[in-house]
Amino acid sequence: ANAVIHAYGPGGAGSIEIAFQVDRVAGQLSAQVVDHGVGLSKEVRSRTAAALDEDRLAASGRGLIVIDHLMEQCDIIPTPGGGTTLRLVRSLTPDG
C-alpha cells in the first residue's frame, strides 16, 4: 500500500514490482516490493519500529510496527536510479 500511495504521489503513475521467494533449505519466505518513485528520505529510512512504537496513533509509520511484529527481517533499501525496495523475510519453521 505504501508503494502505491507514497512512491508516485497523488495521481502519479509508475510501476511497482512484487516478488516472492520460498527457500525450503533455509525455511524462509521472502517478499520484495520495488518502486521507482520519489524514494524515502534518510530520516525515514533510519527510523526503527521501536521508535515508532512510542506513538502508535501517528499518521504514518504504523505499517513498520506491523512488519516489525510479523517479520524476522525488514530491509528498506534505496532502489538504484531512485525509489525504494522493501525486502521482508519470515521464517517458515516453528522455531524460527
Written overview of the protein:
With 96 residues, the chain is of the alpha+beta class. Helices cover 24% and strands 31% of the residues. It contains 4 helices and 4 strands; from the N terminus they run H-E-E-H-H-H-E-E. The protein has helices at residues 2-6, 42-46, 49-52, 62-70; strands spanning 16-23, 28-35, 73-78, 84-91. A 4-stranded antiparallel β-sheet has the order 1-2-4-3, covered by helices on one side.
In short:
With 96 residues, the chain is an alpha+beta fold. It contains 4 helices and 4 strands.
Q: What are the main properties of this structure?
A:
single chain; 96 residues; 31% strand; 4-stranded antiparallel β-sheet; 4 helices; 4 strands; 24% helix; alpha+beta
Q: Radius of gyration, Cα only, in angstroms?
A: 14 Å
Main sheet: which strands, in order across? Answer: 1-2-4-3
Class based on secondary structure composition and strand pairing = alpha+beta
How many H/I helices? 4
Total strands? 4
Q: From N to C, what is the helix and strand string?
A: HEEHHHEE
**Overall pLDDT level:** 77
Q: Please bin the fraction of helical residues.
A: 10-25%
Kindly estimate the percentage of residues that lie in beta strands according to DSSP: 25-35%
Apparent shape? elongated
**Terminal Cα span:** 27 Å
- Uncertain runs: none
- Give the biggest beta sheet: 4 strands, antiparallel
